[in-house]
Model the fold of this input.
Amino acid sequence: MLGQYVQVGVEELASDKLPPLLRLRYSVLTDAVADLGKPDEINKLFVGFQQFLYQPRVSI
Done:
């Protein structure tokens, strides 16, 4: 999914794209809910992780 983001841009990870992306990974959305949590939690995680995509890496 992130590779597609790099190729297409930020629109690829818009919230309205989440259900089709989940269907690509899971045969039915109930399987996604079983693995990832309630739909509102999945959406929150999906949107929340995007803030880290362009943060500079910190060397250890």
